[in-house]
Amino acid sequence: MKVIFMGTPDFAVPTLTKLHESGHEIKLVVTQPDKPSGRGKKLKKSAVKEKAEQLGLNVFQPDKIKKSENIEVLRSCDADIIVVVAYGQLLSKEILDMPKFGCINVHASILPELRGAAPLNWALINGHKHAGVTTMMMDVGLDTGDMLLKDEIEVDRYMNVGQLHDILMEKGAQLLIKTLNKIQDNSITRTKQDDALSTYAPMLNKETQRINWNDSAENIHNLIRGLSPWPTAFFSLDDKFVKVYGSDFNDEETRHEPGYVEKVQKDGIYVSCKTGTLIIKEIQMPGKNKVDVEAYLRGNKFPENVILK
Questions:
Q1: pLDDT tens string 44-59
Q2: Phi-psi map region of 88: left, alpha, beta (phi>0 left; psi -120 to 50 alpha)
Q3: Which CATH code is given to the segment(s) 2-201?
Q4: Binding site residues, as ranges?
Q5: Which CATH number applies to 206-299?
Q6: What is the pTM of this model?
Q7: Any idea where the domains of the chain sit in the sequence?
Q8: Angle at CA 206, nearest 5°, toward 203 and 210?
């Protein structure tokens, strides 16, 4: 099939690579414009653009894909299908209706759960025991189209979002090729989503990242791994933000108020929560590198009997 591929971040790169290897013809790769990055604000290519250039593919970087002149660029490709993986812009109905087989999306959740911008993070923040990817037909709603294929994995209590990302980006690539092949031989089954079962995975912000000690230790642990290594959970100590990358927890009753540092030892910083105790394993102090607590304590002290905010 003749394919237009739309994607931007690392998550989309394995799918582009598998698509290139599959024998389907990639007519165009559409990705977000280069963006200023770092202190020097030097323009940085998206991960998808870098890969597309390595593969010798044509790249198109419109600022707004819905503009009429940009739609005409897509139309000129005469594509059979458009594949979208974390592109970063919404498609108009005109684009969705353009290809013979429509537009399909690789979405990083088990739909209809976790529609929206940050399904990987929220799967862990919400303590889900399973996660996965779904291929779906795109419509004008937010991740509301008919489901095609799914792939699901078990999630243990220590998996963080970086690890989940790396697993599911490969699963998504494999699932996309299976989906295209089934569409091509007319053996695909479309399943409508049950809106009553849907949940939402909104964009993350600073309020999401701030640890609320007046919560259970398990919920805080899930928040930390759901934001590690990016964008990272944090707490305040002496009016400075401390990032937390790794943790554990227990459900033992505590006599102290939430946020109280019970003890500091090699295996972690023990902090009272509304229920249970969080054990901080890996931190980044202001202006310092990320380090595990044992290594930090070799040359530094962390205060006990204080209240973290």
A1: 999 999 999 999 999 9
A2: left
A3: 3.40.50.170
A4: 109-112
A5: 3.10.25.10
A6: 0.95
A7: 2-201, 206-299
A8: 120
